[in-house]
Design a protein that fits this description.
By secondary structure, this protein is α/β, with parallel strands linked by helices. The protein has two domains: 5-15 and 100-236, Rossmann fold (3-Layer(aba) Sandwich); 18-96, Putative phosphatase, domain 2 (DNA polymerase, domain 1), CATH 1.10.150.240. 49% of the residues lie in helices and 11% in strands. The protein has nine helices and six strands. A six-stranded parallel sheet has the order 3-2-1-4-5-6, with helices on both faces. Strand 4, helix 8 (177-186) and strand 5 (190-193) form a beta-alpha-beta unit.
Length: 237
């Protein structure tokens, strides 16, 4: 295989993200411990986030609004202004948090940018994702950046057409089966799954139902050697 365009997911593929969200979820559960147990708080927060995706989209701002809504709902409106301010402050802290690259990311994108056209392809809040990319120190290695509201087969097909690559020339690299792997394959592309230590419940997929073929690596640092093997196999054929 010769991939003319390699797209990388951002959150939890290039830099840490979900662990920060889960930490704040635990803080919210602690804030509301006098009203409900932690499991119920987190379950209601997930339901609220999922309901709000159509209006707020993905990202920290929507998460913060969903936390406020959940707190109001679970306290039957008894939550105070001080507690609401605390939730807002958590969201602001998340937006300002340092960008921490995963191990091997800088070396991998540096190496691959010399031989391939790289793209950052992520969903979420435009301002937040642009800010994280700018602060990551690796923005120079990406020839293109696409920040989308949703990742589905239509999104991938549109991006392939926009960047003039055939589906068999496109490779998606990411941590989410639901957003990065399955829809990219459905659009005719190839995909490499690199699991992250934590996955947002909304992104969970029952792997027993998956029949698509894709590669799975333990670390992004393995990607250059995997690509080299694909190239050698293609030459043999």
């Amino acid at each position: 295989m010769t991939f003319r365009l390699i797209a990388f997911d951002a959150d939890d593929t290039l830099w840490h993200n979900e662990t920060m969200f889960q930490s704040v979820e635990r803080q919210l559960a602690e804030l509301l411990r006098d009203y409900h147990p932690e499991d119920w708080v987190r379950a209601r927060l997930l339901a609220t986030e999922t309901k709000n995706l159509a209006q707020f989209g993905y990202g920290i701002k929507g998460f913060t609004l969903s936390m406020i809504e959940t707190a109001i709902e679970l306290t039957e409106g008894r939550i105070g202004g001080r507690e609401i301010q605390q939730i807002i402050d958590w969201g602001r802290t998340m937006l300002m948090a340092p960008v921490q690259l995963l191990d091997g990311v800088r070396e991998t994108v540096t190496r691959l940018s010399r031989s391939h056209r790289l793209m950052l392809l992520t969903k979420g809040d435009l301002f937040d994702q642009e800010s994280k990319l700018a602060r990551s120190g690796i923005g120079e290695f990406f020839a293109a950046v696409e920040i989308v509201s949703e990742k589905n087969a239509q999104t991938y097909a549109t991006i392939m057409r926009r960047h003039a690559v055939a589906p068999d020339e496109f490779l998606m690299v990411g941590n989410s089966l639901r957003s990065d792997i399955l829809p990219a394959i459905a659009a005719g592309g190839s995909a490499v799954h690199i699991p992250y230590v934590a996955t947002w419940a909304h992104e969970h997929v029952d792997e027993s139902t998956i029949h698509e073929t894709f590669a799975r690596l333990e670390s992004i640092a393995e990607l250059p050697d995997w690509l080299a093997l694909q190239g050698q196999a293609a030459q043999v054929r």
